[in-house]
Amino acid sequence: MDLEYLKKTWEKLPTNEQLDENQLRQMLGKRTKSLIDRIDRNIKIGLVVLFVLILIFALDDFLLSPLMLDSLNENITVPDW
After folding, report:
1. Is residue 26 pLDDT above 90, yes or no?
2. Sign of the CA dihedral 28, 29, 35, 37?
3. Distance in angstroms (rounded) separating the CA atoms of residues 80 and 1
4. Domain ranges in the chain?
5. Which of 10, 20, 33, 59 has a C-alpha 20 to 30 A away from that of 75?
């Protein structure tokens, strides 16, 4: 957890109220994440982006490129590779 975030949260507390440990954990629980949670989230985002890119490239190779090549003039020869 960032120390500056803790200071900002502490300043928002009313001065006349006493808070117990559970209330403080609830207030700070939304912000605190361990390093493993952050790495896990980044891996999931990376896998989704990778899957989308593979899907886009596959659509281009198997659907869009053959349609565009068929619409071109028949005199042009394109290697099969």
Report:
1. no
2. negative
3. 56
4. 1-32, 34-81
5. 59
